[in-house]
Design goal:
single chain, 385 residues, 8 strands, eight-stranded mixed β-sheet, alpha/beta, 11% strand, 12 helices
Length: 385
């Protein structure tokens, strides 16, 4: 049996084989790319719901704030809502898609394919977790986009319903149907306001020539007349004065405040130390009163006793003088002449003694009710001591 001779490959043949293998590898990679193959990398998946996805294709670009972010990986009816189309996307996980981001179907130009656009949302919004739905807005799908009328109508109906509930329309209708109360209307409210303002009476008086009906224009003119606007304008036109406007008054007040601001700041700066001094004085006085409360109570007791005794003696003296005046007819000689001559003085003395007795009674009552008034004085009426 003949022996097969081993073939030795030349260097050129080896190079040719490597070139063929490289070409096959490149061709395989090219075909894979054409078929949509991409190297595996980490992504994050979201989905959005639309009522219209005309022109959007599976595999379309996804942009975040205009920058390329990923691709559409699925367009199919939403399993949770038959009226919606669910568009699933996968994007770069480093992009901050948040709960305020809104997905829309956009088109850069008339010649480019449509893509899914995701807005950047708000800086303080929480990031949206993977596999969660994004907020979305459905556009018309035509060359000229119009607002989502269905959503607008639905929102308007909700707003009208909330307003009706807030105004109590349903309750008013129920009361009117039950005969309890007549339902208010704009016409009736307007008529009530006209009646309150006396519009009908003013119209009748104007028609009878008794009085001119007031109007906003006439009221404004009356105010201008009261403020002397026309006279001020005439004086300014004649060069006799300058019309005062609110800006000038504000500027003058501001200038006056700036002029006296240093003095005001100085006064304000002194108020705080004065308050501290007064507070310290009050604290010291309260401490002295606390330390000598026993002596003060004893003094008050003695004063009360003296006042009561003096009051009793004054009442006795008044009684004796009154008895003396009542018995002047029984007096004779010089004593009768003396009493008769000094009767007005004695009567005035009796009046003064009566007033003194009354004041001593008030003073004694104040001491009993408010003994601290000896130090602080009697508090003002209506203010707690």
């Amino acid at each position: 049996m003949p022996v097969t001779k081993k073939h030795d490959f030349t260097k050129m043949e080896i190079y040719a084989g490597l070139l063929v293998l490289t070409t096959l590898a490149v061709l395989a990679g090219f075909l894979a790319l054409i078929q949509g193959w991409r190297p595996a990398k980490e992504t994050r998946t979201y989905y959005a719901q639309f009522s219209n996805t005309i022109g959007l294709k599976d595999g379309a670009d996804v942009r975040f704030g205009g920058m390329l972010a990923g691709k559409v990986i699925g367009i199919q009816p939403d399993p949770d809502d038959r009226s919606q189309i669910r568009v699933s996307v996968e994007i770069d996980p480093t992009l901050p898609v948040n709960e305020e981001s809104i997905a829309t179907i956009e088109q850069i130009s008339l010649t480019t394919d449509k893509h899914l656009e995701i807005s950047t949302g708000k800086p303080d919004a929480a990031l949206l977790a993977s596999n969660k739905p994004m907020k979305s807005v459905t556009k018309s799908g035509g060359f000229v986009d119009i607002p989502n009328v269905d959503g607008l109508i639905s929102g308007s109906e909700d707003l009208i319903g909330d307003l009706r509930e807030m105004l109590g329309v349903e309750e008013a209708k129920a009361k009117e149907e039950a005969g309890e109360e007549e339902m208010a209307s704009v016409t009736r409210i307007t008529q009530d306001v006209r009646n309150l303002l006396g519009v009908k009476e003013a119209e009748m008086k104007e028609a009878a020539g008794e009085q001119e009906m007031a109007s906003v224009t006439r009221i404004t003119q009356d105010v201008r007349d009261m403020l002397g606007v026309q006279e001020a304008k005439a004086a300014e036109a004649a060069g006799k004065g300058e019309l005062v406007v609110l800006t000038d008054i504000t500027a003058e007040v501001g200038g006056l405040f700036d002029q006296y601001k240093p003095q005001l700041d100085e006064i304000v700066g002194k108020v705080s130390p004065m308050q501290d001094s007064v507070q310290k004085l009050l604290d010291q006085l309260n401490a002295v009163l606390s330390d000598n409360r026993g002596n003060l109570d004893s003094t008050m007791t003695n004063v009360s006793g003296i006042v009561e005794k003096l009051n009793a003696e004054l009442e006795g003296l008044m009684a004796e003088l009154s008895h003396t005046l009542e018995n002047t007819n029984g007096l004779t000689g010089d004593l009768s002449t003396f009493v008769a001559a000094n009767r007005p003085v004695i009567e005035d003395l009796l009046g003064d003694l009566g007033l003194a007795t009354q004041n001593l009674g008030v003073f004694l009552q104040e001491l009993k009710n408010q003994p601290q008034s000896v130090v602080w004085g009697k508090p003002a009426q209506g203010r707690k001591p």
